[in-house]
Amino acid sequence: MMTREMTVRPGESIQRALDEAGPGARISLEAGRYPQSVWIRHAGVTLTGAGPGRTVLEPGAGIPAGVPPLHDATADVVSGVTVHGERVGDVRVESLSVRGFSGAGVYAHTVAGVTVREVAAEDNAVWGVYLRESSGCVVRDCRASGSQYGGVALSFCPRSDALITGNESFANAFGLFVDNSSGARVVRNSCHGNAIGMLLLNQVYEGEPEGGVRDCLVIGNDLRANGLAAGAEPGGLGAAGPPISGVGLALIGTHRVSVVDNRIHDNHPSGESVMGAAFVIGSSKEWGGDDALDNHVLWNRITGNSPLDFQLGADLTRQVCAGNVADKGDPPGLTAADGWRPR
Predict the structure, then answer these.
(1) What is the pLDDT of residues 111-167, one digit of tens each?
(2) For the residues 231-254, what does the mean pLDDT come to?
(3) What SMART domains does the entry give (predicted)?
(4) Is 177 left (phi over 0), alpha (psi -120 to 50) or beta?
């Protein structure tokens, strides 16, 4: 079957083109502003713009009838691009900006194969790019900023087979959030100016699917200058969570996560935080999760942070640490033999 290709120009309906073209379509958006949101509900669809900053989706009158709402949000919360529906998969959203929506910039739910590439998700109220209960997830070369919760988030994807690479995330509560998702590769991202640069969290919520964060790789990321304050004010940044500030990377209740060759530097809290260092390993057992077990922390450079470079609240006999550089931490007195040495 031939792929149906359609071009949409400013002033025309993206939703009409998606619905008319059906499964397997390639919808190209010319440069310009599109005051509308869209719902991709067919498999094999590619929605592509002329580039971030050139093709811009923004709030307007065009809201698709019957579009599923953002998870755990009221119906009046609107996302820019929603990918949701039975047997929806192999969908691509690429080369555009999505800004100013009251929900997520890009929201995918129960999708078997979703790629978000070269998307600028800017000032969307809740999430930037939010992939939930999906598999085959790719987020590549995106910029995500100005969201109350995560810039890029992978949530309850137990077999994500995810690749999150080359993204820049800033001015969010969580720069990059791996929430109860496993099998993710998080490679060469830049997270700065958030409350926490990167959080991998195993925590079971009432009424949610089974949790867990297992068998992930976090490699070659730059996590710096994360100093916003989240979770301290009702209705503020990261309001649903505990207070967090000044954290580069945290592994909470994770199993078999490898943290390799990351640069975690110059993170300083501006407010209260339940985490006391730039790099944290901790348990989530009291929230229905588990202890942090069998993680590998190798060849990371963790320097210039306050109040501490690292805080290892885990059984160190159940972790593998080697070749890490850090000046000050808890527990104190670790040596090169323990996998930690000063500069």
Answers:
(1) 999 999 999 999 999 999 999 999 999 999 999 999 999 999 999 999 899 999 999
(2) 93
(3) PbH1
(4) beta
Tell me which residue of 51, 59, 53 sits closest to 34, measured CA to CA.
59
Cα pseudo-dihedral 156, 95, 36, 33, rounded to 10: 150
Token duo for residue 309: 């470079």
d(CA 176, CA 191) in angstroms, rounded, equals 7
User: Is it true that the peptide bond before 10 is cis, omega within 30 degrees of 0?
Assistant: no
Distance between CA atoms of 170 and 151, rounded to whole angstroms?
7
Count of domains observed in the chain: 1
Q: What is the CATH number of the domain that holds 110?
A: 2.160.20.10
Residue 12: inside a domain, yes or no?
no
Boundaries of domain holding 180: 24-341
Please give the average per-residue pLDDT across 299-310, as a whole number. 98
Per-residue pLDDT band at 1 (split at 50, 70, 90): very low
Write the DSSP string, 301-324: EEES-SS-SEEE-S-GGGSEEESE
- Would residue 155 count as lying in a domain? yes
220 domain-assigned: yes
Identify the pLDDT of residue 287.
83
